[in-house]
Structure formats: structure tokens, C-alpha cells
Amino acid sequence: MIPGFEQIVEERIRQAQQNGTFDDLEGAGKPLVLEDMTGVPEELRLAYKILKNADCKPPELQLKDEIFQTEQLLAAMEDTREKYRTLKKLNLLIMKFNTVRGASTAFELPQRYEARLVERFGQK
């Protein structure tokens, strides 16, 4: 810290304490709720915290949300052509998700195939 700056900060904190500025703070007297970040590398914790506070999601979570929304949309569709186009989009999103993750193929999301749709269309 800049020399002398610490003294200014400490003095202002003391003045605020004397004036009772800290008396009515939300959560006063309660334990702090600390977030468990043990799974995040130490050098990335601050960045993750900033992104979380800004309500930003990592790309893989954004893709997962989009996959879920597309699946919901697909389930509600009636038109066969639209279903097929949406299915192609869904498979592209799943492929992108699996690529972004870079994990073992054993943990990849399976793509949805038109055979399942054809079976469902035959039932209607």
C-alpha cells in the first residue's frame, strides 16, 4: 500500500466506528457466509467471484442452458420440418458443448437422432 495511505484508511474506519456507521449493517453479529471455492484453482478464484457477481456464466453453462431450452422447444413443436431443423440445431449445440468441455468422451452428452423423432411421428 502507499505509505501513509494505511493511516488515512485506519483513521476513517475509527471515525466511522465512533459515529456508529457500522452499527446497523445487514447481517451484523451473524457469521459470514463464505463460498466454497476449493474446486477452483487459487489463481482463478477472484475472476470466478467477479464473473459470478456480474451474473456471467461460463460458456459451457450457457451452452447447457441453451441445450435445455432447445429440448423444451423441440418437445412442444408440432411441425415435422421445424422439429427436424430444431433437432439439427440441438445436435450442433451438443457437439459444441462436448468440444468446449474437452472432457473424456465417456462424459459427453449424447446427440439426439432423427430416428427417435421418426418413431414419435409414426405414433401420432
Number of helices: 5
Largest pleated sheet: none
What letter string, H or E per element, gives the SSE order?
HHHHH
Shape: elongated
Roughly what percent helix?
55-70%
Mean pLDDT: 81
Instruction: Give me the Rg, rounded.
Output: 26 Å
- Cα-to-Cα separation, first versus last residue: 72 Å
Helical/strand content category: mainly alpha
Share in β-strands: under 5%
| Weakly predicted, low-confidence segments | none
Explain briefly what this protein structure is.
This protein is mostly helical and 124 residues long. It has five helices and no strands. The chain has a domain at 59-123.
Structure description:
This protein is mainly alpha-helical and 124 residues long. The protein has a domain at 59-123. The chain has helices at 5-19, 45-53, 59-76, 80-101, 114-123. The longest helix is centred in the last third of the chain and has 22 residues, at 80-101. The radius of gyration is 26 Å and the shape is elongated. The mean pLDDT is 81.
Top keywords for this entry?
mainly alpha, 5 helices
